[in-house]
């Protein structure tokens, strides 16, 4: 591969820093540490059950703060993220999906000027079936640089993010990154072990004919979501006048990657499944970083009702309804939420004689 023709991540970061004459290089050092953590996880994921530490790979090892089973790789990936990022003096604290409380750095390490929030292994229900998984991260500014971060310091709206990204451990390993100047994808060159800029300035097409939603939740959806999906399913003969394709991988990173590469819309909307949980995905370390990447690629990221990154967070592990992708479709879904007062939409597909009939038919 002619590396000279494509910058490495290091070259890219140096170029980025030149745009900010006062930058100290700490952000670049943090991204470098993060990218190392992702390489380490990629390597471990690739070895699968042959890895030396694999043990019993299908056995859950505990339950996290979300009440979800932790897989051994969830725990290991969390350790890799903590070890790679705690020592360098770039962060003042971290929040992880796998830790109930914010992580305080060991006393021997200096406190830096950034906060790091991450989902160390996203889509981990897919590990055993060898489907793409990933890691997601968000970078904020510390409120009191040089000191331990307080839990409330992490509760910043997504618009305050300095950087965000994910690594995808798929057929190729890729790192997708924004530092607020576009969304860029790097492919891991496996022989050199270098991230190479393969997809600079990604742009999501405004229009799409592809949507992603977990249809098994359809009986819990709000009317606006039912209406949107019904219209897509109705295809050429329906109000949209076009056939749509549907996808569901159950791996947020993989869904995001598809949408960044070829467009589409993703929905894990607020629903009525569990009134204590307004949505499935976590605001600070799933929805925020993905929203930043999507917006920087020209897409739209929403709660279903409004721009997601303007929501003021209230808790570290808060969940939220999340709709993102091609701007036109996301705006349409927001519009349906505005148009449809709750309970007035009569679904042709979800009613008695519908495609997704919830009442037993005679
Ligand atoms: O199992 P469901 O309800 O389809 O949910 C799938 C969603 O859950 C997640 O796997 C949650 O992430 P974690 O694996 O990090 O808990 C997302 O990646 C994905 O979009
Ligand atoms: Mg996740
Ligand atoms: Mg996870």
From TrEMBL:
Q: GO CC: one term?
A: cytosol
- Enumerate the Pfam families for this protein: FBPase, FBPase_C
Binding-site positions, Mg(2+) 2: 119, 122, 286
Keywords for this protein: Carbohydrate metabolism, Cytoplasm, Hydrolase, Magnesium, Metal-binding
First-listed, main subcellular location of the protein, grouped into a coarse class: cytoplasm
**Subunit comment for this entry?**
Homotetramer.
Provide the protein name.
Fructose-1,6-bisphosphatase class 1
Source species of the chain: Aquincola agrisoli
